[in-house]
Amino acid sequence: MPSLLDQLLHPERTPPAPVAVDLRRVLLVGTAVWLSALGVTAVLAWTGAATWTPAIVCATGVVIGLGATAWARGRGAPASAPAAASTGTAGTAGTAGTATTTTAGATGAGTAGATTSGPAPTDGTGPAHGTTA
Question: What pTM, to 2 d.p., does this model score?
Fold first, then answer.
């Protein structure tokens, strides 16, 4: 076991898991905020207390938000859906210079779930770039 000083000088950090978020809900909330700001700025512009420039900016935000919401609806996949393709990670905290590649859903016989581990190649070939052994 490493000493306390070694752990303080070279901590091993693992990133937290991604949070599952409904992208459409986030976009709708943002668009609603832009819409309410549009209402406020439009009233201010009609009364002469402000120019129309802020209202135009808010209207642009609403249009972009509606377009992004339509895009998110067209994607159909939730934000937290795992990728069906292979996933490769080159070097993690505490294992610098090591590459691990895992293939899920491979169609070849004997390759489903195959994992290879070893030194990370530096020439752009090998397991660190999504191939299996």
Answer: 0.48
